[in-house]
């Protein structure tokens, strides 16, 4: 199977803009900058030129790496502009964005005064452009296969994102129907998976690996064929294209089922399970003939698919005849039914790859970075106000502490000290010297003071105990006439006062 011709791939048609640039968009942006931000719109002339240039290049209907980079940057800039300019329906900067679909039998256009419609159309074209690049790859060498594999994975994600995150279905565009977006996402991902199968065959990977990969492709294409048979999709795809895609999906489903059976048959040969090998190869022959029958209905297209099927048919026919003959004349193993054969689990490594629109190498410089959104301006104002309030409180505390420190320094009379004098010549204030002499003349004064303080503390404790006992007794008095007596009230009040003083003195100790 190493030299098998490459099977054809498909890609969605890109959407077409009706106008290169909405005529009133830039004037409305200028007016909003002047009225809302109180800024000079002329400061953003280069930004307006860049915006017009990106829109023009994004709408060129070109599928190449440069165009995709521009479309991604334009998409990112639109997302950033949404936080600064109200551009949705009935908002001050809303303008009409008009795009046409080419997927239906008649080209259908739609226009919305909503920047979200423009964002959805650009995201759709990003996916379609990646798919077109992948489809156009020859896949004849390692580099081309890898490029196709990556682009199909890049192409799948935008359609998922349109369906699940951007809310594209709210716009009356056939391209944005959830069923169609799901179909495109799945078929692009399985086409990436087909690149893996081609690589596995070319690299001569094990029979088990190729058969697992082929089973996943076969099952996915059978599922996609069922999707295309639904009436819901027939309204959104060109009738001629719908028929071609149905035949292609059905033919590929049988084709990869045949590939799976062929490699399982080869594995059975290596394991000397000759009867099972015959059964797998017979099933492979049936499947490839079914694929040939389906694709022959297409008289105009899928020539490469016919070549691939014809090549595989020759290989499988020869292999099946050889293995059957060997089993009939040499091994005589029982040939089981196809449904009784051991199957392999489907495996895939292809997955949708997203991109981060706000990554610097994707979005570039923010065209309107100098304009802060209204919520940011409000936040900055509130921050400045709170910052000033906190600053005032701190300054007031500092000024109070400065005043206290100044008064303390004045009480120390440090201004009487001459710090420029030598230490031997320096003389302390006379008042301090007299106080020191008086204290020195009474060496036992400190000890006497401490003894007296201890006596006072003891008496204070005794007084507190007696007052507590007295208060308890007064509280136990339950005679209303006595409680109303003025003398009783005076005594109770005096006891409370003494208790408070005693408690205060105890707390200071």
UniProtKB/TrEMBL annotation:
<protein>
    <submittedName>
        <fullName>BRO1 domain-containing protein</fullName>
    </submittedName>
</protein>
<dbReference type="GO" id="GO:0005768">
    <property type="term" value="C:endosome"/>
</dbReference>
<dbReference type="InterPro" id="IPR004328">
    <property type="entry name" value="BRO1_dom"/>
</dbReference>
<dbReference type="GO" id="GO:0032456">
    <property type="term" value="P:endocytic recycling"/>
</dbReference>
<feature type="coiled-coil region">
    <location>
        <begin position="281"/>
        <end position="308"/>
    </location>
</feature>
<dbReference type="GO" id="GO:0045022">
    <property type="term" value="P:early endosome to late endosome transport"/>
</dbReference>
<feature type="domain" description="BRO1">
    <location>
        <begin position="8"/>
        <end position="405"/>
    </location>
</feature>
<dbReference type="Pfam" id="PF03097">
    <property type="entry name" value="BRO1"/>
</dbReference>
<dbReference type="GO" id="GO:0043328">
    <property type="term" value="P:protein transport to vacuole involved in ubiquitin-dependent protein catabolic process via the multivesicular body sorting pathway"/>
</dbReference>
<dbReference type="InterPro" id="IPR038499">
    <property type="entry name" value="BRO1_sf"/>
</dbReference>
<keyword id="KW-0175">Coiled coil</keyword>
